[in-house]
Hints:
Aminopeptidase; 9-stranded mixed beta sheet; 17 strands; hydrolase activity, acting on carbon-nitrogen (but not peptide) bonds, in linear amidines; 4-stranded antiparallel beta sheet; alpha+beta; elongated; Amidase_Cbmase; binds (2S)-amino(hydroxy)ethanoic acid
Amino acid sequence: MAPEPQIPRINEQRLWDNIMETAKFGALETVEGGMNRLSLNMDDKQVRDWFVARATELGCAVRVDAMGNIFATWSGPGNDRSDLPPIGMGSHLDTQPLGGRFDGILGVLSALEVIQTVKESGLRLNRPIAAIDWTNEEGARFPAMCSGSSVWANARDLSDLHNLASLTEPLETMKSELEKISYLGETECSYKANPLAGHFELHIEQATHLEETKKHIGIVSGVQGMRWYEVNIIGREGHAGSTPMNVRKDAMVAAAKMILHVEQIARKNEGFGTVGFLKAGSDAPNTIVGEVRLMIDLRHPSEQVLDEIESGFKAFLCSLESETKGLRTTIKRSWENAAVKFDQDAVACVAYAAESVCGDSQTVMTSCAAHDSAETAKVVPTAMIFIPSRDGISHNPKEYSTPAQCAEGAQVLLESVLKYDAL
Length: 423
Ligand code: HGY
Ligand code: MN
Ligand code: MN
Ligand code: MN
């Protein structure tokens, strides 16, 4: 019986050095020496170019599709199956405007580290493996989180993105930037043009479950459901000094009540409700605000509860209108992703790898945060791996995981892919 091939070990220092090196791109020195990078690839062209250069050095074939997703495929020496779709190891290089150094980029750099480790070990795989950067996962600058992966999965049409009213960037900027992004690559953006045999994503947990349970690795079995709503509240501008309180149509006061309602109804249903974006009035302290635009980010594992909360939003907005004669409100669901369950075989590969890497210091869990894997799961077997985030902090320059945690997560990624390759 041929002996089991020696499983190669991730190079912890090399992975850490790459994470620290790429955190410099587009970074602004922020609190306590933390770094953050401007959001979105168009600002982070440097990190994309860095990724392509490193992948090319490793001997990967690099393809960029029409949404700017980057596929760096390594077939290995003498791999006579290079015609087969690769096993993908993806995540995202873009960040939040006040983002950290690990969200997304850990998964992409760990995928490169897996390729280099397998290459140096001389291990022969049955399939190619690919490191993938999915464009605009954060949706921080352009609307619709996971734009690149959702178009690849044919879950969203490219034209949708052009039509989505951008709330954080003037429409013209968004359109011209999207024009650039949407034609960055030569291949069409679809799983038919860049097929995968499976998809594994290493990501920081961005919450405290692993820390609280003192586990090293999360075996992620799915992602909770999420929706974005665009709310407009239209009242009437007025003089702050001479308009009596009882005749005002103050859109800012109504918006404040709506924000509190979101917070209370999410708590009551043990979900997640956030208003992270608000655009109001004319910024004049002595003019009553006539118009407010806000965006609600709502998340819950149950679609039924999401529906109930959504009806609650509509009813509450109606009550605001009846409270203040003449006040008008609109609400539109502008983005959504239903709750996703990952493929059992792919999850089993992660469980096997986690057991081999860290014994029983692992736990099965659902992701509260959105990920590109929720899109790839729509077309290929997918699973995710979590490592702990210090104090659960993320979307914040203080985001932190240790070198050992990053390397342990990358080792589980490597062994998950080896297990899946052997299926
Ligand atoms: O919002 C999210 O959950 C992801 O980080 N974009
Ligand atoms: Mn992320
Ligand atoms: Mn994020
Ligand atoms: Mn993600």
